[in-house]
Amino acid sequence: MISKKETPSKFRKSFSSKEGRTFSRDGKPSSKDGKSFSRDGKSFSRDGKSFSRDGKPSSKDGKSFSRDGKSFSRDSKSFSRDGKSFSKEERPFSKERRVGRRDFPKGNGMGPLVKKVEDDGTVRLNKFLANTGLCSRRDADEYIKAGLVTVNGKVVTQMGVRVTYEDDVRFNGERMRGEKKVYIIMNKPKDFVTTVSDPHAEKCVMDLISKTLCPERVFPVGRLDKSTTGVLLFTNDGELAEKLTHPSYQKKKIYQVTLDRNFKSSDMTKLSNGVELEDGMAYADEIAYVGDAKDVVGIEIHSGKNRIVRRMFEHLDYKVKKLDRVYFAGLTKKNLSRGQWRFLSDEEVLMLKMNMYE
């Protein structure tokens, strides 16, 4: 129990526990199972090992440290371990010797990344084979070692060989046609159908992508209604597309909704609490007015159900006049006019693959 008589008004320098162990902050040693500690003396011992900040076995002023026979020095920028000495420049895995590390521009919070290799139009042979759907990169390495792969008629068994998509790459005599992975973001305009091909549609989003600039076969990730505008992603990376669209992954989407009349705050609460639709409950993770207008609402959802936003508002007897997706899986339509598109940067592709976004 703490003694009130010994206790100063603000802080107490000592107290004792029920087990009879005493602790001190005023320079008097205290003991706990044979272990002693002192703050004024700036030293303590434990299991026969002693440490000091006042110039004894280790020194903060001298910038040197010693523990279990291992010593380190900041002044000489060197350290020793197991009888071996290293300078800062020779230090194993030193920060300065880490090849290919760099930082992202401030503000994106993505941390270090392997340095980008110049895009010279080539790709590693094992990646080329993996892109054809033949096998994984690891299996491709085994096929290469076994001499089952030829490039332009020559057997290749060396690891790290780079090829182009125009090279004649064959596995067991059969030509493999690899395809470069492509990632595109578009600001979808109104009245365009989100599909690869539709003979009954007058306008299709695929018609907006130049075959000259993007000869690869890409497809839209998910769907936006014909009258819905905003962020739309295209790729030929099937694995990534599944992660972004499968309901179990619950990717964040933000829409700006323009309604036929002012949206009641009570109805805003209803959407936050959830409304029951024909295929189950639907919730708004976040919802708020956009600016001063009461008929324009911003809504954040994670559900991937078909026409979910429109059905949520229609359930409350509102008609959606305009629906614009402004955010999808970390991507926005910034600097893209209606109908414009661009290739994603390497950083954006990495963000999608590493799931480094909300």
Verbal overview:
This protein is an alpha+beta fold and 358 residues long. It is elongated, with a radius of gyration of 32 Å. The longest helix is centred in the middle third of the chain and has 9 residues. The strands form eight sheets. Strands 19, 20, 21, 22, 25, 26, 27, 28 and 29 form a nine-stranded mixed sheet that branches. Strands 3-4-5-6 form a four-stranded antiparallel sheet, with no helix packed on it. Helices cover 14% and strands 31% of the residues. It contains six helices and 29 strands. The N terminus is likely disordered. Helix 1 crosses helix 2. The two termini are 49 Å apart.
Quick summary of this structure?
The chain has 358 residues and is of the alpha+beta class. The protein has six helices and 29 strands. Helix 1 (125-131) crosses helix 2 (137-145).
